Every structure is written in structure tokens, then in C-alpha cells.
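User: These chains co-purify. Model them together.
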Amino acid sequence: MAAQRLNEFERIRRFFAPLAAPGALGLSDDAALIDGPDGQQYVLTADAIVEGVHFLSDDPPAQVAQKLLRVNLSDLAAKGAVPVGYLLVTALPRARDEAWLESFAAGLAADQASFGIGLLGGDSTATDGPATLSVTAIGRVASGRAVLRSGARPGDDVYVSGTLGDAALGLRALRGELPGIAAETRDFLAGRYRLPQPRLALGQRLPGIAHAMMDISDGLVADLGHIAEASGVGAVIEAALLPLSPAARSVIAADPLRLSAALGGGDDYELLFTAAAEVGTALTALADELDLPLTRIGRTEAGSGVEVLDDRGATLAVPVAGYRHF
Amino acid sequence: MAAQRLNEFERIRRFFAPLAAPGALGLSDDAALIDGPDGQQYVLTADAIVEGVHFLSDDPPAQVAQKLLRVNLSDLAAKGAVPVGYLLVTALPRARDEAWLESFAAGLAADQASFGIGLLGGDSTATDGPATLSVTAIGRVASGRAVLRSGARPGDDVYVSGTLGDAALGLRALRGELPGIAAETRDFLAGRYRLPQPRLALGQRLPGIAHAMMDISDGLVADLGHIAEASGVGAVIEAALLPLSPAARSVIAADPLRLSAALGGGDDYELLFTAAAEVGTALTALADELDLPLTRIGRTEAGSGVEVLDDRGATLAVPVAGYRHF
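Assistant: Joint model of the two components:
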């Protein structure tokens, strides 16, 4: 009689949430806040990637390094923070050669320059298993201004940056699951999977505007569910409003079931936030200024859970509800 | 023609040191400093442990958790810092059951209470390999008061806390490499290996007294070598002065070659520091107050490297110069 397995979120809630410090935001925010100097708070976040789970053995090491850094910077972006630095922990197979490490370090160097951060410390060890890499990233934000997941109010508009589903479709393309796809389309989607773009400039403009925010790593529906749960609200998404890239649009046109990539696929690392209807005009101006689409995709309401409506207003079942590690 | 493999320190120096931020202390200190509030600095440190490398599959999960936390708290102790909190990243095999996790969390809870810290965040993921666990620990220290590895001056006395070699002998006992050892002796030594005691109270008293400090995790000779290199000095240790527990003394009496455990074995997590001769009396009083032996084992001098002298003043060769992961 095997017991029902707990998923990652249930494990965190059951075993780790009782251990949370006051600044840990109940472990529901993928980030913690501690006091910094000069009216600032530090935002702390940690994310790990494992070879064979989050990246492939033949992925270019520089891109692995950049993805590792960027998924963490994306968590800082989602709090409205400015990155400060990071600690890096590597557990690498003994046979991993120095050319791999050299390329890995070159990827870090490139992104350090892009994002204005430096390496603060860490640890390196050997493992008999797959490479396991983790980063603890540190950012800063004016005290009390970090945007949490818990601030959504009923009647907010729900927004996403950029386009959705590209990364999930990119992974499927890399796995050969999208036969007949044009090379250019495949390259675009694969690039979105391999090298996310943390939306730091956007995130830093949203304190005081967004009521709740997070980045999309588990998939739109799952992640909006996290905001809804933390905020004690429900949410309704209109599938017809989802922002799709031309590449994703063409792939979905060939098979409409692939729309699930935009609704349920993870790894887009776009920002998902809620805001009052009154700031809609300001957000349109901000999107123009940053040259980054900001799309209203639905609204929050009293209640709980996330509902997805098709273009006739009927409820759509969403098959993929976030990546489950366990 | 296989190229010469770089060890962990050479890899850090070559690939990661060029990436170091200003607060990273050149990555030579196992800790970074960033500004905190109210005239304080935060000390940041990260350490990972891998199943099969740093702990055994059948080790009690609560003790694994405590060792993981304590090796990080020991790094904070070595800077003179007060622990604030930590982030935890776990990569666990999918088959790891919830009883393991429950015991692991209980170990964290016990040590959180012992050391007055809380969990700030982290990540949990699955792996096809061995369990890989890492902690980023955060402490605080008055600005400019953290004790670095680089502050030793020629003519300092070299001190260690507690006793040396217990953990290395404990590991050998657990591996069955010390046949005939008394059960009580084995249990004491194994306990020292499994559950290090971070010397926080001592560390917090040493800013302004110690010139240079670190914890002993790679072994006395290797770690004193790190201080010597960072400080630009040499060091001489007198083997006859090494503080040994009664258990270690009995095991070494049976085979004097086992003295290498005290000189070269790691995992004791005692503090190693240098100080001016003038503070000797104050250190004796501090040892009494804390009920923790502080033993002068040698001195620093102009030059470089670490020399170990036997009781006739002849140079001893030390076979184990720090644990090499690669």
C-alpha cells in the first residue's frame, strides 16, 4: 500500500514551511526579505538546476550557466529588485573536463556584465551523479516596496509580459516532438527555452503599481494559482487573450492542442502580475517605453482557483498544471 | 596524454576568482561581506554536501541536516558572525520517502532552536543521482570587524579550539578501519565526525583579538596553509602541542601514524586563528569562560608554507594535505 506521494509544493508546505523565519514570507514567494542599509531590503532567492532534469548533458555550458543565473534573476525581477550578486554551488562529476568549466565560467562572466552583478562566493564539490548547480541570488529593493504574491485583490486585471508558451514548445522542438517545424521557428523557440530573459527593467518599475507578482516558471495556470492562493482570490483567464509569438502561433495553428504549452508549459520566465484597472493606461505607456508587450489576459475575483475560458466563454480544461518533480 | 587535473582550489582560482565581486574577498575566505543595517555587515557563505561523498546513505537524516547546517554555521563562526538565517536547496532522489524528509526537517528544527536561526527560502528539486544538499547561511557582524584569513602577521601565535583529529578518526572507525577500538571511544569519535559543533560563541569573541581565522574543514595543515597564503606569511606547527582528546590519544598510542588524522584530517570544524603573543593571557581567560580549550600550537613567521616539527624539532612530512574532490 504505497502512500500517496506529496508533490513539491505539498512537501514544502508540510516539512519546510513550519521552519520559516519571519522574513521568509511563509516560503510561498520564492524569495525572502532581510533589512539592508539605507532604507533598502535585500531580496534572497535560491534555485537549482540538475543535469537531465533542467538541462541536457550536451547543452552548451555557457548557456547552462546563463540559464542558472537568469532563473534566479527572474525571481529578483518578480519582486521588483535590483540584482546585487550571487553565490554559486556546483556539484560536478569528477570526469567533467576543464573545457566545460571554462565555457561555464565564460557564460557567467557574460551575464555578470549584462546584469551588473558579481560572484560573492559558494562551494564546489564532486558528485558521482549528474551535475547539480545552484545559485543564491541577492537583490535590493526599497524597504516595503517588494511586490509579493499575496497582494492581489478581487477585481484586479491580470497581466503577463512578453509571450507565453515559447519555452515549452522550444523544449518539445528540441526533443523532436514537433516534426515539420521550420528551422527558423525551431531556433526561436529553442532559444526561448535555453536562454530566458529576466524582466528586470519591467519588475523594477512595478512596485506601487502591481498588487501581486511572480515569474512564470511552472506554467501560467499553476503560477497564477500560486498568486490566487497566496492572495485569497480566484482568477479567470481568457485563452483568446494569451500573447503568442508568431512562432508559437504557427505551431499552435498546426495543432490547436498545443495551446496547452501557453497555458500550462513552464520556463517562459515572463512576469505575471495583477494591478487595478485604473493603471491600464500607465501600463500601456510602460510597455511602449520598455518595448516589451504587457498583455491583460484576465481578472481576479472573490473566490479561489484559476479558471480558463475559451473564446465562447466555456471553461477549458488545462492538462498540465505545473511541472511536478515528485 | 591526459592533462594534469586541477584540484578544487586551482579550479576556483582559475575559473571563478576572476568573477568575484568586491565583497567576495577574492573567494579565498569561504565567505562574503555585504553592507547591512545599523553599522552591521552580513556574512554570506554556502556549502554543499553530497550523499556518498560527505555523508552516507544510511546516516540518520536528522544528523545529515544538522551537519549541513553546522558546516555553514562554522564558516560564520570563523568570521566572528552571529547567525541570522539560511536558504536550503535540496536535490533528492525521487524514491526518497517522506519519512526521510520528516526526519531531515526535524534535524533542521532542532538546530534552528539551538542556534536561533530560521529558514529563509530555497528550492527543492528531484535528481536521478545522489542526494545533493546545499545551504547558504547568513550572519551579521559589526562593520569592519569580521575576521578574515588574510590578517595574520609574522610572529603571531597560532591557536586551535577544542581537539583535533577526532572527526577523521571517527570516519575511519565508521569504515571499520580501526579494529579493536573500544565502543565508547568509537562512539565519541564517530559523534565528532557526524555532528560538528560550530564554535559560534568563541568566534564572536575574537574580532579585535584574532588577526586571521578560519574553521578546520580540510585539515589543519591544509587550512593553516590557506591562512598563510592569504596573509603572505609562513607557519610552523609543533606536533607535540596538538590538542588531542583522550579518545584520539588512545587510538594514536596504538599506532603513531594515526597522528596524521590530527594534522591532515578534516571535518573537525574547530576554529584556527592567529593572534599576537600579548593576548595569550586574555585567551586563557576566554577558554576558561567558554569551557573550551584554546591551544597554542605554533607560530607564524616571514616566508610561506606550513612546516610541522616533531618533538625533537625535525620536520615531519604530512601525508594528507586536505581533501581533494578532483
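Chain A has two domains: 8-142, 149-316.
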